[in-house]
Fold this sequence. Notes:
The protein is an all-alpha fold. The chain has one domain (2-430). 84% of the residues lie in helices and 0% in strands. It is built from 17 helices and no strands. It has helices at residues 2-27, 31-55, 58-68, 71-97, 99-105, 113-124, 127-142, 147-169, 179-203, 205-208, 221-255, 257-293, 297-324, 326-330, 337-369, 374-398, 402-430. The longest helix is centred in the middle third of the chain and has 37 residues, at 257-293.
Amino acid sequence: MVALALPVVTDQIGMMSMGFVDTIMVGRLGKESLGAVGIGVSVYFFYMVFAFGVISAVGPTVAHAFGAGDRREISRSVGQAFWVAIALSALGLVVVWNIGAILRLLGQPPELIPLSERFIHAMGYGQAANLLYAVLRAFTVGLGRTRVTMVIAIGASILNIAADYVLIYGKLGFAPLGVAGAGYATAIVQWMMLGSVLWYVLSDREIRDYRFLREILPIDLRRLGRLLRLGVPIGVGNGMEAGIFSLTSLMMGWISTLALASHQIAINIASVTFMVPLGISTAITTRVGQAMGAGRRADAALAGGVGIGLAALFMSFTAVLFLTVPRLIIGIYTDDPVVIDYAMILLMIAGAFQIFDGIQVSAMGALRGLKDTAQPMVVNMVAYWLVGLPFGYLLGFKLGFGGAGLWWGLTTGLAVAAVMHALRFRRRSLRGQGPDVAGT
């Protein structure tokens, strides 16, 4: 599990580091710029998490077919998944070009909305590349080829640092673009990543033999339907989780710009550590899916249990860091003492939800390896929207705990999801009832 997960984790951290660097460099422009990026990303990220979830159906589909030795199924599924990515890109452009209206509708600070528009509009130019890359990434990971996207992600993170520095602050003869520069830098890097992974899959003899590009046409509605039946519940389930985080960011804007900026820092730190269990989750899906495809149910149960344990162990370590040295970590982002003090409170609460977050995402990965996606979607809806969100609103606005109350709501929702997903995987795998198709 470690051998498969480590490159995926490195890949995830490399991808997340781009947002990490964006936040640090934009933070030097002031708390208004930091807050503007935060509220813009909160909406854009919500949609992209849904889109990535739909596309992630490629992973368990490829893993099952690989375990069963069905190369034709792999080729056809990957080829048709390009149409899914294209459709999601077109839908995403509606979000990108209406981001200002969405933020005004959600009652965000008017002075921050123009800055948010500049950032999201610029980043939107890379959206199609990002989703097409996700298809090929799921393809290679489903085959157990995890190192290629790791190398690409490391190179992309280095390029993003350079592009941010040049475009945000105006270096090497370029005009300073501020927050828009961070968005353009991300878009440029995303197209570079797509080009790199395309070069790899077309030059590697074994992967090239799948000939997935020949399967793009004609459109196979039945296979597209199977991908969507598996992927849409994943996307909606992911959206349920991302949505509560996005809505929390927006509610922070209702409190104050200080609360919003502090939240942006704390959530970015928590998101960086989350990349490790997220990478482990992807490896779990591959291991469980390949074992199920080969008919080795006991191996699938063992792989899921080991992966969930690894994720919980790592997040226990990060929880200790958040609780013991929060000021040192937050100081990387800002030297504003007021922002630091507020963000410290939030980061210490994040120490409490780290373990739950690691368990829920790794258990979700195990369930996807079983192609069990419909019921977990319902669990996410209940945990985040019927438990976590109302509880956070009650604490934050009715009982006067402010941002801290909203974060305790997040913690509660994650705890419910973690327990329910872990128990479901245990029951499904040990009783031999893992569904063979999504929704059964």
